[in-house]
Structure to design on (268 residues):
């Protein structure tokens, strides 16, 4: 399938031929069943499966707009919704929506939220009320994505990594994580942290600051902050993320991740 996807990616007219359109549809079905992923960790390094992202993009022109009726609710879209949650062992609270082509592992709880195509959500994770999980985002096991969190989607360029949230992470209310940022395992983000590819991430827990960009190191406790930047009109403060410490050993997987924030007197 990878070879067929790469060929049709460079010549979209081939989508009219059955073997190529079937390859795209088969790839999406495997994504939907969790048999393949857009990105995976191999030997401690995250690898993007570009051909899978290509298939997701190619899937849209193959689909026709259809009316989807759910009781009194009506939608008009190209992509159908996921079904059979009981069989998959997933709790879905009205009005949670997950699109076909995403995969949700057993034990996940979806509060009223939105999960987009290509994303993968690990077991034991909760996607809380009005949180959004963008296209191709990878969410690990036992993650709490709090209310109103925005996890961005990354489809193009195809070589770009999606947003990746590793295992046992706590993401506080109204955080925004976009542009392929990676949050490593057991990190804790306080409310309203904004992370983009260009956001300055500063460890201020020691005497001298340590700067990061594009990822949050594992076990970090993070709060929103600001730094001064010079513009033509003068100096202004822009958002940054401050690492104020590490999760303590007493805050483990069996303890509410809110406790890690309480240790530093930070709201969740």
């Amino acid at each position: 399938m990878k070879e067929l996807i790469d060929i049709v990616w460079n010549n979209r007219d081939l989508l009219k031929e059955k073997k190529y359109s079937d390859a795209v549809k088969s790839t999406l079905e495997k994504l939907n069943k969790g048999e393949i992923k857009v990105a995976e960790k191999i030997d401690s390094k995250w690898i993007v499966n570009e051909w899978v992202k290509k298939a997701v993009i190619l899937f849209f022109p193959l689909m026709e707009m259809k009316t989807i009726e759910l009781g009194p609710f009506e939608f008009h879209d190209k992509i159908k919704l996921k079904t059979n949650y009981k069989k998959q062992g997933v709790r879905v609270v009205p009005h949670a929506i997950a699109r076909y082509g995403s995969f949700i592992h057993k034990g996940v709880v979806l509060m009223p939220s939105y999960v987009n195509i290509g994303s993968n959500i690990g077991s034991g994770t909760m996607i809380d009320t009005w949180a959004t999980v963008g296209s191709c985002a990878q969410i690990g096991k036992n993650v709490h994505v709090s209310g109103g969190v925005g996890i961005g989607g990354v489809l193009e360029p195809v070589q770009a990594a999606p947003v990746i949230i590793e295992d046992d992470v706590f993401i506080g209310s109204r955080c925004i994580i976009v542009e392929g940022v990676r949050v490593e395992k057991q990190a804790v983000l306080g409310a309203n942290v904004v992370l983009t590819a260009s956001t300055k991430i500063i460890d201020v827990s020691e005497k001298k600051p340590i700067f990061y960009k594009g990822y949050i190191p594992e076990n970090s406790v993070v709060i929103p902050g600001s730094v001064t930047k010079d513009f033509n009109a003068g100096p202004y403060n822009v958002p940054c993320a401050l690492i104020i410490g590490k999760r303590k050993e007493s805050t483990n997987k069996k303890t509410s991740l809110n406790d890690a924030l309480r240790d530093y007197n930070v709201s969740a």
Observations:
- Residues 18-33 form the longest helix (16 residues).
- The chain has a mean pLDDT of 92.
- The two ends are 44 Å apart (CA to CA).
